[in-house]
Amino acid sequence: MSETNAPAPRAGAKQWWGLAVLVIPSTLLFMMLTILFLAAPSMAADLSPTSAQLLWILDIYGFVMAGFLFAMGVLGDRIGKRLLMVIGAVLFGIVSIAAALTTSPELMIAWRSVLGVGGAMMLPSTLGLIFVLFADPKARGVAIGVWAGGISAGVALGPLLSGLLLEVFGWQATFLVAVPVMALVAIGAPLLLPEHRDPTAKIDLFSALLLVASLLAIIYGVKRFATQEPAGPSIGLLIAGALVGLWFVIRQLRAAQPLLDVRLFANRTVSGALAVFLLSAAALGGVYSLFTQYLQQVQGLSPMQAGLSILPAAAVLIVVSTLSPMLARRFRPGNVIAVGLLTQVVGYLLFTQLDAGTGLGLVIASFVVTYPGVAPSMALTTDLVVSSVPPEKAGGASGLATTVNDLGISLGVAVIGSIGIAAYRSQLSGSLPDGMPPEATAAAKTGIDGAIAAAGQLPGDIGEALTTAAQQAFTSGLNAAGITSAVIAAVAALIAAVGLRHIRPTGRAHDDAEKETAQES
Q1: What does residue 170 show for φ and ψ, rounded to 5 degrees?
Q2: Does position 392 have pLDDT exceeding 70, yes or no?
Q3: Residue 342 pLDDT
Q4: Which of 28, 415, 400 is nearest to 215 (CA)?
Q5: How far, in Å, CA of 184 to CA of 165, rounded?
Q6: pTM of the prediction?
Q7: CA end-to-end span of the chain
Q8: DSSP code string of 139-182
Q9: Residues 6+ apart with CB under 8 A from 20
Q10: What is the DSSP letter of 11?
Q11: Whole-number Å distance between alpha carbons of 473 and 424
C-alpha cells in the first residue's frame, strides 16, 4: 500500500491526555464569562463600583477576548500554537492573582481586560492543536465534540461554581480558581502536545485593534445612555465606533490575507446561523447577569442557594444540548433552533411578571423555561457554519462561530444590562423615601448594591423603605430586560425559521446537502 493511502495513525493515550490539557482551559475561559454573575454583589460591596463600572467588570473580558481571537490565532501560527498557549496560560494565571488582590474598580476593569488578552492567546491554539494532535478524522471529530461540549459547560457552570466558592471563600476565589488550571496547562502542554507553526503566517495586529476599538466605542456609547450622561458624546461614540467598524471591514476586503474573511458572511447559512446565535446569546446574557443579582439582592438568597437555584435550568440545558443534534437529523435545523428560541420568548415574558415578592418556585421555573432555549443554537451553530463552506475555509468559519459564542453573552450584559440600569434609576428616582441624606441618595442611584449598603447606615424605617424601593426598582429593571430579550429572541426565531429553512435535516439526503454547499460557495 502506498504512503498516501495509508490509514491515519490511531489516537493513543497521550493524545487523549493532551485533549484534556486543551479542553480544561477552554472550559475555564468560557466559565470566566459568567463566573462573576453571582459574585457581583460581594465584589460590589468591597470595591464600591458604580453600576456602569460593574457592567464593565462583567463584560470587558468577553469583548477583549473576542476582538483579539483572530489576531492571536495568526500569531500562534507564526510563533507556535503551543508556545503561545503556554504564554497565555502564564499571563492568565499571574493576572488572576493580581485581580484577586485588587481593591479598585478601575484596576479590576483593567485586569479583566488583560485576562481577555490571555484568553485570546489560548483559545485558538486549543482548537488548532486538536487538528494537529488527531490525524484520524473519526477521533478528531470526537475530540472537537468534547471541546465544544466543554465550552458550553463552562458558560453553564460558571455561576454554579461561583456560588460554591463564595459560600466558603470570598469573590477573590472566582479568580484564583484559574491559577491551578493555568499551571496545569503551562506544565502539561510541553509534555503532551506537539508544536505547530507556520512561519509564512502574517499577523495584522492593526485590524485587531480596529475591531476592539469599534466594539468598545459602541458599547461605551450605549452605557453612557443608560447612566443618563449627556447625549452628544454618547452619540459621537456610537458614530465613531460604527466608522471604525466600517474601516475594519474595508481593510479586510482589500487584504490579500484578511484577519477576518468577511466574505464568509455572503454565505446565507453562515450569516443566518451566526446572527441567530449572536442574538440568542445576547438575549440570554443580559437577563442572566441581572437574574443572578435578583436572586441575592431581592430574593435574599446566599450565593450557594442562588447557584443551586440555577442548577435545574443548567441540567435541562445539558439535556437539550444533547438532544438537539438528534432532532436536527429528523427535522430542519432552522426549525429546531426556532422552537428553542420561541420557548425562550415564553420564559422572558415570565420574567416581566416577576416582582419583589414573587415566590422562589415561580422564579426558578421562569429560568428553567428560559435557559435551555438557547441550547439548540449553541449546539448546532458551529456545525452549520463549518459544513456550509469549502474545506479550505473551515478554520475561518470555526473561528467566527467561537467569536460569536464569546461576543454574544458580553454584548447582552452590556446592552440589556444597561437597559436594566436605566429602568432601575428611573423607577428609583420616584420612590426614594423622604429624609434621605444626599450621600445616601447618590449611593442608591449607583445601583442596588449601593442602595442596600446605604440602607444599612440609615435609621430603621428609612433604611427599610430604601431597601424596599431599591428592590422594587431593580425588579423593574429585570422586567424591562425581559421585554427586551423577548423581542430579540423573537427576531432570532424568525431569522432561524426563514433564513435557515433551506437547510435540510442533517440525517437526510447527504448528497443534496453537498449540492447546496457547492452552490452557496
Answers
A1: -105, -175
A2: no
A3: 94
A4: 415
A5: 20
A6: 0.81
A7: 35
A8: HHHHHHHHHHHHHHHHHHHHHHHHHHHHHHS-TTHHHHTHHHHH
A9: none
A10: P
A11: 5
HEC secondary structure over 409-467: HHHHHHHHHHHHHHHHHHHHHCCCCCCCCHHHHHHHHHCHHHHHHHHCCCCHHHHHHHH
Q: Are 270 and 400 in contact (CB under 8 A)?
A: yes
Residue 223 near residue 52, CB atoms below 8 Å: yes
Rounded to a whole number of angstroms, the CA Rg of the chain reads 23
Sign of the Cα pseudo-torsion (276, 278, 281, 286, in order) = negative
Residues 6+ apart with CB under 8 A from 112: 56, 57, 60, 61, 64, 99
Burial of 107 (0-12, 13-18, 19+ CB in 10 A): middle
Cell of 447: 445601583
Amino acid at 81: K
Q: What is d(CA 36, CA 38) in angstroms, rounded to the nearest whole number?
A: 6
CA atoms of 8 and 128, how far apart (whole Å): 18
* Torsion over CA: 92, 94, 96, 98 (sign): negative
Most confident segment among 91-105, 261-275, 349-363: 91-105
375/15 Cα distance (integer angstroms): 29
**Grid cell 427599610 in the structure block, residue:** 464
- Average pLDDT over the chain reads 83
Amino acid (one-letter) located at 103 = T
Q: Rounded to whole angstroms, how far apart are CA atoms 407 and 274?
A: 11
Contacts of 190 (CB under 8 A, 6+ apart): 82, 86
Q: What is the three-state SS of 303-351?
A: HHHHHHHHHHHHHHHHHHHHHHHHHHHHCCHHHHHHHHHHHHHHHHHHH
Burial tier of 266 (Cβ tally within 10 Å: 0-12, 13-18, 19+): exposed
Classify 8 as helix, strand or coil: coil
Q: What is the structure's pLDDT at 511?
A: 46
Helix (H) or strand (E) holding 299: none
Query: Vertex 82, ends 77 and 85: CA angle to 5°?
Result: 95
Higher pLDDT, 4 or 299: 299
Phi, psi dihedrals of residue 146, rounded to the nearest 5°: -65, -40
Long-range pairs for 136-142: beta carbons < 8 A, 24 or more residues apart: 136/7, 136/8, 136/9, 136/10, 136/11, 137/8, 139/10, 139/11, 139/15
DSSP for residue 372: G
